[in-house]
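Saturday, quiet lab. Running sequence design on the structure tokens for the scaffold JK sent over.
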């Protein structure tokens, strides 16, 4: 067999290419714990008008654990022709635009690139449609599927009056309320079927197109938004969140402003701000949210964990929060105290991922930073004796998400270790010394 030689210049190029591949950080929207999660926007034309159509626009959140919190979503697009919006129900555009060319009652919006927001709760009934008027808040699919849908109705003019003359809008954007979502081009699909209230008749949309929007944490924020700290009953070491996990003090471009809890007039400073950028308490990690996992007790057939979620953000009350945990013993959860639990199986039959969230009107509302800015619960696990161990950090989670964002974990070599490992090493060394002394004494005697 001959030997194949690679020229030196070619080998250098290949080496640099491989290095660039290993250093590349993916910015795509694929989530391994929710591989099919997305927000689907469905646009159904339900009737024609003299110069356009009336459409029902429905937004479905098919993400298992990522929701849209207040101040809610905003949906934008660019018209393909010179369309205008004559009227809306269940939603409104943020700007009317220049409607000076129209005589009489002007259209609702004349902008080439309108942005639509949901109406607020308490909107008059004659302006509502089904699944509207929630202030743009969308629950996650696993947590509250009934409230994971939002809708509005729009009457479009100057748009064509048949499915051959209507052009689908372009450049859809979704903010929730900030960046993070990337939307696909609109795709014409099979018209939607509608079952009437008596369930004896089915009607059909005149034309339907879909838009799929997926989330990327990297696009949403340049730094993480949460971190994890660890402790256990068998070790006095408390492993804190990694230093500068979500940015460092003084780097306001990354984390917003850092303030101390005893800052004078802090309440007035917070209430006077309408910025969604975090106003975090000064800490070593600078994260808006910290999750602490404490291995609390060990029984004969069970073991117990205490979980505490602390809010360090003075600008945010996290309502309908949720946490996703990945741990091999989640297939044997026996009891939770003051948290809801739902098993997630992103890998088919492997049950090692769970979603946790608070009870309604009890602890589903996580207050902003301060004395009451935390929620906590305890989890009781049944031991599987074939896999259970406290050794080598097995009792700590592999991954934790908060409100859909991946939290920064401490490095594995910093986890609390069993003291038995040190005792065993010292005991084995002592045994070796004692056996050597006994042997020497024996030979000396002989």
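Result came back. Writing it out in full:
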């Amino acid at each position: 067999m001959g030997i194949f030689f690679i020229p030196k210049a070619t080998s250098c190029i290949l080496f640099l290419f491989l290095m660039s591949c290993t250093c590349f950080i993916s910015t795509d929207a694929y989530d391994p714990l929710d591989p099919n999660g997305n927000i689907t926007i469905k646009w159904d034309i339900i009737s024609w008008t003299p110069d356009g159509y009336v459409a029902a626009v429905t937004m479905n959140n098919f993400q298992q654990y990522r929701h849209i919190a207040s101040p809610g979503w905003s949906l934008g697009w660019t018209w393909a022709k010179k369309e205008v919006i004559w009227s809306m129900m269940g939603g409104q555009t943020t700007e009317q635009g220049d409607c000076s060319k129209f005589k009489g009652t002007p259209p609702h919006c004349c902008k080439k690139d309108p942005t639509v927001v949901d109406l607020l709760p308490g909107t008059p009934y004659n302006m509502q449609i089904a699944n509207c008027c929630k202030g743009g808040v969308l629950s996650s699919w696993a947590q509250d599927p009934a409230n994971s849908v939002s809708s509005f109705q729009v009457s479009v003019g100057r748009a064509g009056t048949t499915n051959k003359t209507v052009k689908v809008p372009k450049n859809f954007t979704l903010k929730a309320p900030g960046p993070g979502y990337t939307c696909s081009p609109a795709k014409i699909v099979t018209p939607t079927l509608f079952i009437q209230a008596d369930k004896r008749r089915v009607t059909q949309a005149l034309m339907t197109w879909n838009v799929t929007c997926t989330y990327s944490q990297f696009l949403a924020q340049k730094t993480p938004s949460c971190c994890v700290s660890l402790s256990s009953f068998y070790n006095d070491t408390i492993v804190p969140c990694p230093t500068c996990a979500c940015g460092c003090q003084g780097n306001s471009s990354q984390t917003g402003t850092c303030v101390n809890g005893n800052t004078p007039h802090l309440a007035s400073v917070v209430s006077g701000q309408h910025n969604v950028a975090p106003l975090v308490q000064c800490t070593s990690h600078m994260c808006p949210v910290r999750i602490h996992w404490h291995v609390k007790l060990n029984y004969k057939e069970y073991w117990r964990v205490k979980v505490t979620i602390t809010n360090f953000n003075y600008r945010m009350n996290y309502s309908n929060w949720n946490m996703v945990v990945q741990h091999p013993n989640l297939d044997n959860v026996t009891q939770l105290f003051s948290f809801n639990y739902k098993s997630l199986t992103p890998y088919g039959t492997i049950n090692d991922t769970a979603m946790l969230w608070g009870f309604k009107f009890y602890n589903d509302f996580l207050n902003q930073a301060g004395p009451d800015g935390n929620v906590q619960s305890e989890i009781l696990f049944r031991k599987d004796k074939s896999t259970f161990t406290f050794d080598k950090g097995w009792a700590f989670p592999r991954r934790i998400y908060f409100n859909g964002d991946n939290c920064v974990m401490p490095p594995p070599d910093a986890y609390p270790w069993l003291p038995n490992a040190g005792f065993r090493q010292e005991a084995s060394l002592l045994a070796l010394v004692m056996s050597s002394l006994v042997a020497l004494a024996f030979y000396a005697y002989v």
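Notes for JK: The first strand starts at residue 39 and ends at 49. The two ends are 65 Å apart (CA to CA). Ask whether to fix the surface positions before the next round.
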